[in-house]
């Protein structure tokens, strides 16, 4: 898979920033993801991200760390032990250049035989599930790398608002969709397009049901202004 994300991040860091990342999904038009936003400081982060960083404890694993802004804050300001992982090689190179001590180019599913106190999945980190049918195996894997008393902090959005309403106030959901939060996502940058990939937006009730079914307590920590939310999952001991 082309590393569109990593290329844009490295360009920005090396002073070659001339344009932003373009994103599009199977249900939305092309949108702009400003590359500088990926390098934001704590003060520029939305309240949901700030709250998640406040709740981090112990050894933190930042999953899908991107340019490393969350990990860097936790390492430098909170003085926590942080490991940062991403499937983007370019993103991890950027993290290392920014001074993140433990930054690894790897997939969360490949991580074995380690334990963490906080698993952090921000910027819709649950999206890496791809499909709702994968949520059980995803949560079970996360549980396997949590220390006793550990926690998962993740944010996502309920995107039902993006679908058209019928005359009775119901929503038009395509018949071929298993779940309305399953999208096909694509990125482009400097004339280069990524292959399409699945991405999951999961509403809180669906997440809570999946969490309980897999032995977690699920707590709604904060709701944002754009149908987004922060949740904390903790294994039932």
TrEMBL record:
SUPFAM superfamilies: S-adenosyl-L-methionine-dependent methyltransferases (SSF53335). InterPro entries: Methyltransf_25, SAM-dependent_MTases_sf. GO terms for biological process: methylation. The keyword DNA damage does not apply. It comes from the Bacteria. Pfam families: Methyltransf_25. Keywords: Methyltransferase, Transferase. The keyword Endoplasmic reticulum does not apply. One of its GO terms (molecular function) is methyltransferase activity. Residues 60-150 form the Methyltransferase domain. This is Methyltransferase domain-containing protein. It comes from Leptobacterium flavescens. The lineage of its organism: Bacteria, Pseudomonadati, Bacteroidota, Flavobacteriia, Flavobacteriales.
């Amino acid at each position: 898979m082309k590393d569109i994300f990593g290329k844009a991040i490295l360009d920005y860091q090396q002073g070659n920033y001339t344009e932003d990342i373009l994103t599009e999904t199977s249900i939305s038009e092309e949108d702009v993801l400003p590359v500088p936003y990926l390098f934001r400081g704590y003060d520029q982060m939305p309240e949901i991200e700030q709250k998640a960083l406040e709740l981090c404890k112990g050894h933190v694993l930042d999953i899908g760390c991107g340019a490393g802004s969350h990990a860097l804050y936790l390492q430098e300001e909170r003085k926590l032990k942080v490991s940062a992982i991403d499937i983007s090689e370019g993103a991890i190179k950027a993290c290392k250049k920014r001074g993140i001590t433990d930054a690894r180019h790897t997939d969360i599913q490949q991580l074995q035989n380690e334990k963490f106190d906080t698993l952090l999945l921000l910027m819709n980190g649950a999206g890496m599930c791809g499909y709702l049918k994968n949520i059980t195996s995803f949560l079970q894997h996360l549980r396997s790398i949590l220390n006793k008393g550990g926690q998962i902090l993740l944010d996502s959005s309920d995107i039902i608002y993006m679908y058209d309403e019928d005359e009775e106030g119901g929503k038009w959901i395509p018949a071929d969709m298993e779940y309305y939060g399953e999208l096909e996502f694509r990125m482009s940058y400097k004339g280069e397009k990524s292959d399409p990939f699945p991405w999951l937006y999961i509403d809180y009730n669906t997440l809570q049901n999946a969490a309980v079914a897999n032995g977690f307590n699920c707590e709604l920590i904060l709701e944002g202004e754009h149908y987004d939310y922060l949740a904390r999952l903790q294994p039932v001991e």
